[in-house]
Amino acid sequence: MLGLKLATDPRWVNIVESNIEEILTDHAWCEQKAASNAISLVTYNSELEELVTEMLIIAKEELDHLQLVHNLIKSKGLTLGRERKDHYVNELFKFMKKDGSRRDALCDRLLFSAMIEARSCERFKVLSENIKDPELSKFYRDLMISEAGHYTTFLGFAKKYVDNLDIDKRWQEWIDFETSIIVNYGKNETVHG
């Protein structure tokens, strides 16, 4: 479960199935935000050549996912709705350390990113195993694999660029915090909702 302590209740998929247009719209905007996050990591850390190279790959993959979701929306005769706020991600953002060295801030941003990818991967797994639509089941299974790769990339870079932080300890703090907030989610037809 990617280190996550609390699994999503499979009954969440029943909520999702009641409004496929909403989950797909929310998912599309999650992919856009993930691409933007990767680009912002490039912008603020342009001197880290390996990080820049990998973040550009992730940004492109996230944009490709956005296009896949949009194509799926169109193929189902649905409409991409307006951007939604992601309250889960906003709560995680508040937990991110904003002080310390520049490297410490980078490591926490990478852990923040890894946490989002981990939960997205877990949600996509639940969708792939429980949604009745075979096309959506396969779609979410394929994306689950990609999200797992992004999770490990972000976590790996956090460990690589650490200055004086105990990354394993800090990751455990992230997991504990995420556990404390995820209990409030799983009630809406959104990726993290």
Automatic annotation (TrEMBL):
Which InterPro entries does the UniProt entry name for this protein? Ferritin-like, Ferritin-like_SF, tRNA-Hydrxlase_MiaE
One Pfam family from the UniProt entry? Answer: MiaE
Q: Which CDD domains match?
A: MiaE
UniProt signal peptide? none
What Gene3D superfamilies does the database record attribute to this sequence?
1.20.1260.10
PANTHER family reported for this sequence: TRNA 2-(METHYLSULFANYL)-N(6)-ISOPENTENYLADENOSINE(37) HYDROXYLASE (PTHR42637:SF1), TRNA-(MS[2]IO[6]A)-HYDROXYLASE (PTHR42637)
Q: What is this protein called?
A: tRNA-(Ms[2]io[6]A)-hydroxylase
Give the species this sequence originates from. Flavobacterium xylosi
